[in-house]
Structures are given as structure tokens and as C-alpha cells.
Amino acid sequence: MTSAALTNPIFTNEDKAREHLEAIRWPNGPYCPHCGEADQAHLKRLEGKSHRPGLFQCNSCRQHFTVTVGSVFERSKIPLTKWLLGFHLMASSKRGISAHQLHRQLGITYKTAWFMAHRIREAMTPGAASKDPMGGSGKIVQADETYIGNTKRAKSYRKGLRHKRSIVALVEPQGKARVFHVKKANVETVREILVRNVDRKSELHTDESGLYVQTGKEFADHKTVKHGWNKRGVYVGPDGQTTNHVENFFGNFKKGMKGVYGFCSEQHLQRYLTEFEFRYNNRSALGVTDGERAVTALQGAEGKRLTYRQVGQDPL
Ligand SMILES: [Zn+2]
Questions:
Q1: If you measure from the C-alpha of residue 41 to the centroid of ligand 1, how many angstroms do you get, rounded to a whole number?
Q2: From the CA of 28, how far away is ligand 1's center (Å)?
Q3: Domain locations in the chain?
């Protein structure tokens, strides 16, 4: 992120921050989160000293609301300016931003920063449109699996896949990715992910792993790439097939987990995958700016409040 972006008043002025959020959440004017009233004639902004800023009254159900009701910000004690900066930092940091960095940069406690980061990941969770099948006739989908160690405990554990977490990723070259934490990457779990997410008319590109041999026959075509001794090499098969996009995704994810996050419990692994998937699917190579990426994440902040409770006790 450029330093100019940080001087945006939405990060310093609470009124500007709220107006920014209102513009994102209510592009056609406010609607009542209690009864759904969207007729502006029935919605009144309450102004003056006797009301807290940003308060609306719905004349249909007589209830009050602000832009944060029904979103991850609801009932938060953290100023919206800090929330917006947190979203911006997480959306624009290619390898993520640790709770420790958020704690220092936003001037909030470490615990608060940790919960804020998880709520931002919740907002980054893809919506219903992400259930549409990937690929399609004449289109390619790359699939691959990888394993990530539990770095803090690794010393006391013997090496081997047994103690690692399995991740399966699907990537459309020049397109989007979907990434899944699975208990165990085997023929069954990999098939389940492929057939649920990829149009069977697609061409599947994988490495020569036996995990894809049988399921590959269910797709229009299945081309494989040989992995060589030099993992950093570029592998292109005789028909131009590669798994480079999915390998690049894993490479960036692992650098982020190692360099920024260091460790995450298995319980939270999917949240971190979602965060990296979000940035990948809104990457600058697809023409998305840092600011636009933050706005997309903020749009996802709506309606996420209830699902958030799984994370645990909430100090925000
Ligand atoms: Zn209402």
C-alpha cells in the first residue's frame, strides 16, 4: 500500500469512516436491517446532539439502526477508522499481516487485533456466487495438493506427512482459485472437491500423482505434468500443460504462513487459506487495486456477524 493511501481521512476521521462504510453497504441508500424497509421516505437520519452519529430511525418498524448493524462491526468498541485501516492492511499485504503488526499499527491490544484479523477473514469468505462450477467447455483447471507442517511443534515431532495438514487447491489459469483444508488428501477427498467445484467439461491439469488418475477420467480431458528434481523449475508438458499457477499459490501461501503468521492451529487453517484465496482472486494482475480489494472485503462484512461466534470469546 502506498503511504498516500494511509493519509485518506477514512483512517483518521470517524465520520468519514462511517460515510465510507455507508456508501459501500448502501449504494442505493439505507435500508432497515430489522424489517427490510428500503423506501427512503420511511427512513430518517437522526441528527443532533441527542443521538449518536450515524443513527437512523425506521418509521415502518420504529426501530433504530446504524450502518454497522448486521455486520462484523456490530457492537464493536473499536473505532471504524481502525477497522477500515485493518481491512486495508490485510487486503493489501500480499503475504498477510500478523495480529502483532495490527496491534502495533492500530494501537489496539494484541488480543483485539487477533479477533479483528479473524473477523476480516470472515468478511473475506466467498459468498454464494463462489459455488458456481469452475472451468467449463474448453477451459483449464489446475489441481494440486500440498502439505504444511505445524512449525512450532515440528521439533518434537518426527518428520513426515503424518504430522502435516493437507491442502487441496484448484486454480483457473488467469482466473480464480479455491483452496480447501482436508483431513487427508486421498483419492476420495480429492474427487469430492473436484466434482463439487469443477465443470466436467473442463480440462484438468495435475501432476502425475495417483490421486487424480481415476477422477481425471470424469473430465473432458486430463493432462499431467512431471515434477522434476528441481521444484523451482518451470514444467511444461508436451501439450503446454502446467500446474504453475496452483504451485505459485501454494508458494505464496507457505511464505506467508512461515514469514508472517508462523503458526496456526489446524482449527483455523481454513481461515488463513480463505484470506490468501481472497487476495489471489482479487489480485492486481486481474486489474484490482488495493483500494478496490479492501472495498470488496468490506462488502463481505455484511451478514457475517452470526457465523463469527465460532471463533470464541469476543473482546471487540
Ligand atoms: Zn424497520
A1: 12
A2: 16
A3: 3-26+67-125+301-311, 132-263
Nearest CA to 314 among 107, 74, 91, 125? 74
Read off the pLDDT of residues 196-223 as tens digits, 9 standing for 90 and up: 999 999 999 999 999 999 999 999 999 9
295 CA → ligand 1 middle, Å: 26
Q: Which residue has the higher pLDDT, 38 or 265?
A: 38
With a cut of 70, say whether residue 316 has pLDDT above it: no
- The domain at 132-263 falls in which architecture? 2-Layer Sandwich (3.30)
State the amino acid at position 50 in one-letter form: S
Measure Cα distances from 187 to 145, 200, 209, 211 in Å: 11, 17, 10, 5
Q: Using the mean position of ligand 1's atoms as its centre, give its distance from the Cα of residue 63 in Å.
A: 6
Question: Each residue of 173-188: pLDDT tens digit?
Answer: 989 999 999 999 999 9
